[in-house]
Structure formats: structure tokens, C-alpha cells
Amino acid sequence: MSTASSYARGARIAAIGIGATALVTQAYFSLASYSLGRDEYGGISLLWTSIFLVCSILYRPVEQLLSRTIADRDARGIRGNDHLRVAATIQLALGVIYVIAALALREPLENGLFNGHTSLYWVLLIAVPAYAASYFARGFLAGNKRLGLYGALVFVESVTRCLFALLAVVGVATSQSFVAAGMAAAPIMSLSVVPWALARHVRTGYERESDVRVAEAADVAGLDEPPAEAEFTLAHGTGFAAAVLLIMVAEQTFLNAGPLIVKGTAEENGTALAGFAFNVVLIARAPLQLFQAIQTAILPHLTEMSVTEETDAFRRSVAVTIRAIVAFGAAVALGLLLVGPFAMHVVFGDKGFDYGRFGLVAMGAGMGLYLCAATLNQAALAAGRAAQASICWVIAASAYVVFLVLPGFDDHVLQLELGFLFGALVLCAELYWLYRRSLARP
To answer: Which residue of 22, 163, 337, 437 is most buried, as measured by CB atoms within 10 A?
Structure first.
């Protein structure tokens, strides 16, 4: 199977699982919105935002590190598991740092962020370390192109979480803490797919050992020498992970800082308004979750082509992906223009807020630009330009935050929607410049 067809097949497989995951995640928030009051739902949205803000910043760098490194080593024929040990060391260290920080900051988290809801704090404390293992597994599966299991992992996670909201709607347990507990149970249950991946990895290891013995015998006969094991040090892994960590900080600023800033700048009903703003941000978050199927498949795919210097195929893969995103983004923006406010009220119920049509369209357009930028970012990582890409992200995220705190806006949610469009435009332009530079100077 060719590299291009392998990428397309992998993206389709992952899209099935992750697409279903996006729908189930939307169902979780829809059910939670109907089963809880607006202040309680606002607490759920803030908890979700906090969990994935921290997890994406701390753990996705190791996921990307594993995905790229495994693909790179496979393309070069390098053996050994030192990269897995380095990645696990980094992930474990980050998890320990989080637990220490969360325990030290219990007072401001419990009483400041969650308005005294102790159960939300404990879900935050438990869920984030549980996701450390989940994100490690994702990177391992993506790098080995086990995208079916990758999709299964995130699907099991979303279904587990949604079951808690469903039970709340039917009246089994209607408390906010019960709905929130699904966020802690989800990453733990998702690891049920890991034994399948480990079994395949063990079998593959035996096959590779057999190939090495054959190659060594051939070497004795004067034939080519088998590929040697190359050491992957902690310095190698930390350098890449640090750059991606900056990217994740900027990414989570785009996806999660908005509701938090809205809560902080609102003069009244801050928690409820944050929940309303969170629903708007889901216009960008939900497609991004679906886009993870492409991100998951494209990084090892582009890395392999970068190693083998297939520049034309590299360029074609990026161009095809961006064309598909542009078509999707245009369709979403048109749908929001036609039925956006009505659809948002149907999905999330009437909480006393009105969705502006113009703002929703701006958010949809920003989503399309953001997904194009995310594709260009994967191309930069595959080409070994993580440091330069991180600078682009920091500049764009800073521009977004500055827009959010500008005075003169009475409608803070509209300000968020326009700010997201502005920040995504800046980010896309920067990463496109970096992409063109990478092609001109490999």
C-alpha cells in the first residue's frame, strides 16, 4: 500500500471513531444542560475547560513526541525502545508536578474557580493524572498507525462520560457532582483498549527480533548490515516536547481561555455567562475533535515523507487536507448563517441568553482558519520546525487575549467570537509563511 493511500485509509478509520466521539461529547453537554440549572451547568463547563486546558498543555506534547518519533524511527529502520522510556519519564514527571501544584492551590481552585464545590475540585484532581496514561497511549497508537484502536480509545472515553449525564437526565442521580464524575471515570475506562495494542506490540517485537537474526546471518555472509539502534536521549525528547508544550499553551488559550476571561470580566452572572460562552466555543471545539482524526494520521504520514524527502507528496498531502477543511468550514459558516441561533437553542436549551447570528458566523469562519493552521502546524512538526511553530502560536494567542480584554465591548460573547476569528487569521497567516519557508529551504 502506498504512503498516500495508507494516510487516507488511516484518516478514514480514525475519523469514524473520533467523529462518533464528537457527537457523543456534544450529547454529554446537551444532556447536562437539560438536567442541571444554568449555574450548575456553568460549573460543569468550567470543570471541562480546566481539565482539558491542563491535559492538553501537559500531555499532548508527549503524544506528539511519540507519534512523530515512532514514525521517524520506523522510516529510518531504527530499533530500540529508548524513546518510549524517555516519553514515559517526561509524562510521569509532568503528572507529579500537576498533583503537587493542584494540592498546593486547593483553596483558589475550590473556592475561586468552582465557587466552593468540593466535588468539582476532586474530579479535577483525579481526572488530570488519569489522562496522562490516556495521552501516552494515544501517541503510541498514532505513531504505530493503529488508528482503529486510537479511535476506539477516545470513543470509549466519550461514551463513559456521556453515560453519567444520561443517568442524570433519566433521574438515577441528578446532582452536579455525579455528572462531573463522568470526567474522571472516562480516561480510566478508555485504557481498556491498551491490552490489544500491547499484544500487537509484543508480536511485532518478536517478528523484528527474528528479522534481526536473519539480517545478522546475512551480514556474516557479507551482505548488508542491519540497521543499528540509535539512542534517543532525554534531551532529544525534552527539546521537542518543550516546543510543543508552548504550542499547546497557545492552543488551549484559543479553545479554553475565552469562557474563563468572560467569567472574570462579567459584572454579574459570571458563571452562567461562562457556560453560555462555552457553548459558543464548542462550534470550534467540536470540529477540532473530529479533525483530530486527520491530525492523528497526518503527523506520522508527513514525518515519513520528510525523512524520505518526498517533497511533492508532502505538499500534495497538505494541500488536499486544507482544501477539504476550507469546504467544510464554508459549509459550517453557511449553516450557522441560516439556522445558527435556532440550532444552538435546540441543542443547549433556553438558559436566558440569545445567540447572535453574526457572532456565530464569525466563530464558524474562525474555526475553518484555525483548522487550516492546525494542518500547517503538523507539517512544521514533521519537518522538524517545532521551535519556529511555537513562536507563531504564542504571537497569535497573545493577539487573541489582547482582543478579549479590549475595552468598549458591552457584549463579551460577541467580543470572544470576533477575537477568535482575528486570532485564527493571524495564526494561519504565520504558519503558512513558515510552511512556504520550509518548502523553499528544507
So the answer is: 22
Distance CA 360, CA 346 (A): 15
Q: Over the chain, what is the mean pLDDT?
A: 81
CA distance 106 to 118: 10
Length of the chain as a residue count: 442
User: What's the structural domain count of the chain?
Assistant: 1
Q: Is-above-0.90 flag for pTM? A: no
- Decide which of 321 and 208 is more confident: 321
- Confirm if 185 and 161 have CB atoms less than 8 A apart: yes
Q: What is the mean pLDDT of the segment spanning 333-359?
A: 78
Task: Output b/e per residue, 325-350; b: 16+ Cβ within 10 A.
Answer: beebbeebbeebeeebeeebeeebee
Looking at the predicted structure, is the pLDDT value of residue 296 above 50?
yes
- Does the pLDDT value for residue 153 go beyond 70? yes
| Cβ atoms of 29 and 348 closer than 8 Å | yes
Whether the Cβ atoms of residue 378 and residue 298 lie closer than 8 Å to each other: yes
| Grid coordinates belonging to 225 | 548490515
Distance in Å from the first CA to the final CA of the chain: 26
State the Cα–Cα distance between residues 180 and 204, nearest whole angstrom.
39
Least confident of 59-68, 235-244, 279-288, 416-425: 279-288
Q: Is 310 exposed, middle or buried (0-12, 13-18, 19+ CB in 10 A)?
A: middle
